[in-house]
Known about the structure:
mainly alpha
Amino acid sequence: xxxxxxxxxxxxxxxxxxxxxxxxxxxxxxxxxxxxxxxxxxxxxxxxxxxxx
Length: 53
């Protein structure tokens, strides 16, 4: 994983923003459900990177 916090923090923030955008854009179809699940998983990865501090 990334050990340098000055690199890890912006990556974590961008992953959290990307996940939020994906969840916002999800529609009420199967593709939207897949997009929602993908957005949640990206957001969880961003939170995990941020919590490692």
